[in-house]
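Action item from last week, closing it out:
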Amino acid sequence: MSRSGEFCPRCGSEIPDQEVERPGVAGQRDPDSVLCDACYFEEFDLVDAPDRIEVRVCAQCGAVHRGNQWVDVGAEDYTDVAVDEVSEALGIHVDAQSVAWQVAPEQVDQNTIRMHAEFSGVIRETPVTEAVVVPVKISRQTCKRCGKIAGGSYASLIQVRGDDRVPTSDEQARAQEIAEEYIAKREATGDRNAFITEVSEVSEGLDMKISTTQMGQGIASRITDELGGAFTDNETLVTEDEDGNEVYRVTFAVRLPKYRPGEIIDPQDGDGPVLVRSVQGNLKGTRLATGEDFEASFEDENAPDARRLGTREDAEPTTLVAVEDDRAVQVLDPETYEAKTITRPDFLDPDADEIPVIKHREGLHVVPPDDD
């Protein structure tokens, strides 16, 4: 072995040439680099690991506290979270090369995971291995978002009502679905300010308490886009924050249209009943007597103050006896089974054996099939 003429400052042994000639990191001088291999490895640590790691987890929603904020991780259990936290907390020696590691989690109890980690690497051209055990404590708390929900916090109230009627159970259910879908999309982007505090059915319709004013407006807009009608907003001062700023709560009053798709109404304009097909924007429907389109503006003062005759679901199947001409057909009365002549609308299939009809005090009318 060739001699270098340099000596280890710790043990005094002469350092062989091959140890002296090992390249270091350019521009850096590690104080331990002057030590011989024996002294260097005597106190060498490949891994710097904490004695214990605490992971703060929300007991309600499962979010994990990282840095100074709560983060939704979507974990069914916290083993993967523990692995990530240990990975972030471990320090690997700066001179180590070709580092590899594997971990075996041990679930001690519901709130404790013991992480057995084994590392390998190369230092001074020498393979080294090291094993560490890091206990991870799961600390269950309540995140800020769940605290607000539990405390009943909300910034906007959506009231779903009907014009001169109570919204149907289907309309109320769909309004709630629209709100939940909207909030879910916001949550998917990582917005932890998105939540529904409370949904309640009242005698007049549906009430929903929403976390922010902006989201309340977004939901109200989507409800009226799909179910029709319009909404207004009303701002109310509720308190002042710790800085003395006024805090307002906004009520969005959603008013669904007087009529709904599937209803059969009589505008009493002399042209007979109408099957309502759409209430988005204007009221649009089909004349049962002729099959012609019908449209009226909800905003117009002359919008129809119609008489309700029933719904499409009230229609009963009856026998089509004969097609008399382009304007009339003969059918059986579904109650008396008498043959009656009624108007023939454009949508009627002359080859059908049975057709749906609705009976009211002014007679019988054919109703378009569902797939019309």
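Closing note: The first strand starts at residue 3 and ends at 7.
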